Amino acid sequence: MTTRDDARRQISRREVLRGSAAIVAAGSVGAGLAAIAGEPEAPTSAPPLPWKWVKLDPLEAGRRAYHYYKVKGGCGSASYLSLLSLLKEKGGHPWTTMPDMLMVHAAAGFGGHGTLCGALAGASVIINMVTYGEKRDEYLQNNAIVDRLFWWYAEQDFPSKRFDDISPMPKQIRVKAMSPLCHTSVSKWSLAAGVKDLHDQAKIERCAKVAGDVIYIVTTALNEFFEGKWVAPVWRPSLAIEHCVGCHGPGTPTEKPLRWNQQGHMECLMCHDDHTSLGRSSP
Ligand code: HEC
Ligand code: HEC
């Protein structure tokens, strides 16, 4: 029997053992065969974006994110890998070419720096990959979906009760994130929950559920988007900052020569005082 036959026999046994995992591994098995037969592996490059979205079950995706938070290195991996693993299983190539640990550094607001919540970061990678170049109305949808996702996040009282059935700590206190920043989102919750240690089990539960909540909503939105049902909601500033944006909004062209406009849709009062409340239009 030739080496090649041996390899084939091994593979078919492995396929039986692994079930659906064999489908995921199909690419690397093929590469192994070529190497055994002495054929040089043809260099392939990833196809250009966008890659095809496959309709996914939002609850299954969210539960994976909750679980991966604990076993795959935190929120960045949790959100990215929950979607990627499902896309690999249900969509196959080219998703199978993506490395699993691409977003692990996004945990705790990227390397522990407390900037963007990693759950948002991991999800944004996939959002861009499937919606890149999609233009509806006047907006590029990869940007619109990411922007509205961050806006949605800031408004949420996290964590929801959606994953309480698989959590050892159901019914946790819910606190509004206020911004897409890890530092704000986690600190506001920790203060309200009386959690003083970042390694506290309650904080880990909370963030695992947040990753699940983010992925649940992203999966729902992308399913609807590709069924032609999702239209990006128009961003509206909260009441407290409506007037700020009137003068300083990113899209207030008349103010541009005065350099009043700023880049962003975050809650201004988190970082600025309201200089107009002192009865002055300028500081
Ligand atoms: C009626 C228009 C108006 C509104 C409303 C307004 N601003 Fe301003 N803001 C100004 C003007 C004018 C300046 C001065 C610009 C300059 O000096 O070039 C300014 C300057 C600023 C600056 C720069 C301060 C500095 O140190 O240079 C910040 C920050 C700012 N505004 C934040 C806000 C925030 C936050 C709000 C809402 C809570 C707000 N503004 C509402 C008109 C406005
Ligand atoms: C995460 C904190 C943060 C948030 C949220 C934030 N800002 Fe700022 N903003 C800053 C900092 C820091 C500066 C730089 C201030 C300085 O150097 O004096 C700044 C600068 C500005 C300036 C002066 C910019 C320029 O180019 O002259 C304006 C105007 C301003 N912010 C308005 C806003 C408005 C309006 C919002 C809400 C839509 C907002 N900011 C949200 C932190 C923030």
Low-confidence segments, given as residue ranges, are 1-36
Question: Helical percent range?
Answer: 40-55%
Structural class: mainly alpha
Please describe the biggest sheet, giving its number of strands, its sense, and whether it closes into a barrel: 2 strands, antiparallel
Q: Identify the overall geometry.
A: globular
Number of strands: 4
Tally of separate domains: 3
Terminal Cα span: 85 Å
Mean pLDDT: 85
Bound molecules: heme C
Chain oligomer state: single chain
Q: Strand portion, in percent?
A: under 5%
What's the arrangement of strands in the largest beta sheet? 1-2
Rg, Å, rounded: 23 Å
Question: Could you characterize what this model shows?
Answer:
With 283 residues, this protein is an all-alpha fold. It folds into 3 domains: 3-36; 58-226, no CATH class; 239-278, no CATH class. The chain has 9 helices and 4 strands. The protein has a two-stranded antiparallel sheet with strand order 1-2. Strands 3-4 form a two-stranded antiparallel ribbon. β1 (135-136) and β2 (139-140) form a beta hairpin. α1 (3-18) packs antiparallel against α2, α3 packs across α4 and α3 (58-71) packs antiparallel against α8. The chain is globular, with a radius of gyration of 23 Å. Mean pLDDT is 85; it is low at 1-36. One heme C binds next to α9.
Give structural attributes.
single chain, 283 residues, mainly alpha, two-stranded antiparallel sheet, two-stranded antiparallel ribbon, 9 helices, globular, binds heme C
